[in-house]
């Protein structure tokens, strides 16, 4: 059954897509703490998330409310990818640490 599992995983990688927005703050513990405060303030409200992304995120996506558009598995760094393709849609996740800094991630859509 191993080969069928491998084929299934490859097919899923080509068909699965997600859309997400994020807020990126570069730095260490102070960046993580700031994101904890932002998360408490915005909850899971997508409009508040977009506003906070515009105000705080150091990613160029901040100009679009943090929106990264649609992407497939493996197109983002591992920690980001794992969140977006495994965690609950419509919920703000994080802070999540990557090589770029700390992120809050709002998964807006995912298709299997």
**Average of per-residue pLDDT values:** 92
The count of domains is 1
Radius of gyration: 15 Å
Low-pLDDT windows of residues: none
Key terms for this structure?
112 residues; Chitinase A, domain 3; alpha+beta; 4 helices
Draw up the topology in text.
Layout: H1 2-15, E1 17-25, H2 29-42, H3 46-56, E2 67-71, H4 78-86, E3 92-98, E4 101-111
Summarize this structure briefly:
With 112 residues, the protein is of the alpha+beta class. The protein is 43% helix and 29% strand. The protein has one domain: Chitinase A, domain 3 (Roll), CATH 3.10.50.40.
Describe the protein:
A hairpin with a 2-residue loop joins β3 (92-98) and β4. The mean pLDDT is 92. 29% of the residues are buried. With 112 residues, the chain is of the alpha+beta class. The chain has helices at residues 2-15, 29-42, 46-56, 78-86; strands spanning 17-25, 67-71, 92-98, 101-111. Helix content is 43%, strand content 29%.
């Amino acid at each position: 059954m191993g080969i069928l599992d491998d084929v299934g995983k490859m097919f899923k990688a080509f068909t699965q897509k997600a859309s997400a927005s994020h807020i990126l703050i570069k730095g260490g513990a102070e960046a993580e703490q700031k994101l904890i405060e932002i998360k408490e303030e915005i909850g899971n409200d997508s409009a508040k998330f977009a506003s906070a992304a515009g105000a705080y995120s150091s990613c160029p996506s901040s100009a679009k409310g943090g929106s990264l558009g649609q992407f497939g598995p493996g197109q983002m760094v591992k920690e980001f990818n794992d969140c977006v393709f495994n965690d609950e849609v419509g919920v703000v996740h994080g802070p999540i640490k990557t090589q770029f800094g700390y992120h809050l991630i709002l998964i807006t859509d995912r298709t299997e």
